[in-house]
Amino acid sequence: MTSHLFSPDVQQALDLVGIFVFALSGGLLAVRKNLDIFGIAVLAEVTALGGGVFRDLIIGAVPPAAFQNMGYFLTPLLASLVVIFLHPEVQRINGTIQVLDAAGLGLFCVAGTVKAHDYGLGAVADIALGMITAAGGGVARDVLVNELPSLLRWDRALYAVPALVGSGIVAVLISVQHLTAVTGTAAALVAFTLRMLALRYDWRAPRAWHRGSSSALGESGD
Amino acid sequence: MTSHLFSPDVQQALDLVGIFVFALSGGLLAVRKNLDIFGIAVLAEVTALGGGVFRDLIIGAVPPAAFQNMGYFLTPLLASLVVIFLHPEVQRINGTIQVLDAAGLGLFCVAGTVKAHDYGLGAVADIALGMITAAGGGVARDVLVNELPSLLRWDRALYAVPALVGSGIVAVLISVQHLTAVTGTAAALVAFTLRMLALRYDWRAPRAWHRGSSSALGESGD
Amino acid sequence: MTSHLFSPDVQQALDLVGIFVFALSGGLLAVRKNLDIFGIAVLAEVTALGGGVFRDLIIGAVPPAAFQNMGYFLTPLLASLVVIFLHPEVQRINGTIQVLDAAGLGLFCVAGTVKAHDYGLGAVADIALGMITAAGGGVARDVLVNELPSLLRWDRALYAVPALVGSGIVAVLISVQHLTAVTGTAAALVAFTLRMLALRYDWRAPRAWHRGSSSALGESGD
User: Fold this and answer.
1) B211 lies in a domain?
2) Is A152 near chain C, with CB under 8 Å?
3) Predicted structure pTM score
4) Which of A41, A207, B140, C171 has its CA at a distance of 20 to 30 angstroms from the CA of residue C161?
5) Is residue C135 assigned to a domain?
6) Quick one: pLDDT at residue C185?
7) Consecutive sets of 10 residues in chain A, 222 residues long: mean pLDDT of each?
8) Does residue A129 form part of some domain?
């Protein structure tokens, strides 16, 4: 049982921080989309918990943690209240939120990879589920409000690559039996740092090769 | 085992009425979206069964009831036939359909909360799953046809609140061990009545606080 | 255990061909949508594996085959590489791809129906899950990139009907206990042939009856 890299209390605290920040990002998008307070709460819940719920369904961990641990479920409601009453202030500290979101990305890709391994999946599936844990909620958030998922867009800074690297490091650590609280934290820090660098320098993934004329630039559809 | 508030036959009959009405709403949207008859059938199935299927996946009740009970699966096809041949007439009785939809909302939030409790989930998750049972199919319907889910929109009459109240009453009844056919029906009636009042007086949920200028009005995106 | 109509090696080879072709169609849509290479990979994975993953969640076969069989997961990545480097060439052989996609449709509706039956579901659910296996990935692909699922659109050649016929034949073969490698292949061929004819002669499903004026033509929404 490697899933407790940390003591349960520490793990829970880290999870709640990640959930809270992801929920803020969902709630802020709901405000921009002019949704009502229930729409804000739904989008906060989906963004914060969607990736983990999908992972748990895939690995057969039902009911998913989000439906068993009251703290996981109530934290996005708390974030919704913050957004409802303080969204101008929250938006003003958007830089801080991006830092925290990057931290959530790092934590969740590590935690997701470890949990998938605990349920007996292979290394490739572990990595995929680590990425899904980190990025799935954001995709569900965007689909719900009819936006092309920012994860898929070439004109957004890298998000999948940091998660892939973090999950990949954990999978390697597991296979060489060197996953500990220290090395797991290091993997999360690598993912976090990559994401911060991607934001800072606007690193983007390439598109398909030989895309032809640059007129494609700026078109989000065809 | 509290899930049989009613005799199985009565429960099944109530379920089928709710499924039929939800399927009508899905089928009518498909007609407005100019879909073909298979699109109508798919949207009817998804609207009627989507919430319950999601709940069953979450609580680990697989295969979901919709895939075990032939009546659950075939009823939306019957509703599709009605829509295909009689959609102008069905639209003309839209008021009646909204009444029946409100009844479905009441029945499903109660049934979903009870089923989640039967599978051992806690009160908060029971309430969440009651709401998902009642409203999840409509969200899936809207996502499939690229519409912002009406559940999330501030310019639509309250839908989540009646479901929340109905599910909440059931959770309280369970905790004080007073859930019976009579009190369960009363909870469904409360949800039904709230929804009817919301429709009648166009009750809406507020948006985020201090939204600033009223120019936001009418913008559905940014 | 009827799920092995063929020897495991033959079944695996057929599955991989179907997965590869479905992944190409997802990757090509991603290129048209101007997504980056990770978007291409995600859309390829979702298109190729989405239907089967949903079926496996419904029947309780967790973790789904796509997360247990490394070949299933890696094949869409291979298809993504092909799309990234050769998409103009791939688009040029679009006719060939449509043939292969029709073959995938035939294979997947048969395999999905058989697997659902193996897990103890009834005939109606078997047919539904056969269709979901064949068509679910394409629906998920379209929803992810904000397009009305082509499965639902009246202005696209029949897709659901060939899958329905193929799945239906298999369900009948199972009930009369005549499902063999030969008859199963025949069912897949019937679905394949119907799909090819639908493409060739642009067969479409009708819309709701008495749609009124033909001005509806060409409107995809209202």
Assistant:
1) no
2) yes
3) 0.91
4) B140
5) yes
6) 93
7) 68 89 92 92 96 97 94 95 90 83 93 95 96 95 92 85 96 95 94 94 84 44 40
8) yes
Q: Which residue range is the domain that position C61 belongs to?
A: 8-204
Q: Is B202 on the interface with A (CB under 8 A)?
A: no
Q: What pLDDT, on the 0 to 100 scale, is given for residue B4? A: 63
Establish if A83 touches chain C: CB-CB under 8 angstroms: no
Query: Secondary structure of chain B in the HEC alphabet?
Result: CCCCCCCHHHHHHHHHHHHHHHHHHHHHHHHHCCEEHHHHHHHHHHHHHHHHHHHHHHHCCCCCHHHHCHHHHHHHHHHHHHHHHHHHHHHHCHHHHHHHHHHHHHHHHHHHHHHHHHCCCCHHHHHHHHHHHHHHHHHHHHHHCCCCCHHHECCCCCCHHHHHHHHHHHHHHHHCCCCCHHHHHHHHHHHHHHHHHHHHHCCCCCECCCCCCHHHCCCCCC
In one letter, which amino acid is C146? N
Nearest to A121 among C36, C43, C67 (CB): C67
CB contact under 8 A, C154 and B35: yes
The alpha carbon of residue C206 is apart from the nearest alpha carbon of chain B, in Å, by 6
Partner residue facing C143 (CB), from B42, B68, B143: B143
- The total number of structural domains that make up chain B: 1
Nearest-Cα residue of chain A relative to residue C143: A143
> In this predicted model, what pLDDT tens digit does every residue of C37-89 receive, in sequence order?
999 999 999 999 999 999 999 999 999 999 999 999 999 999 999 999 998 88
Token representation of residue B210: 């201090």
Residue A74 covered by a domain: yes
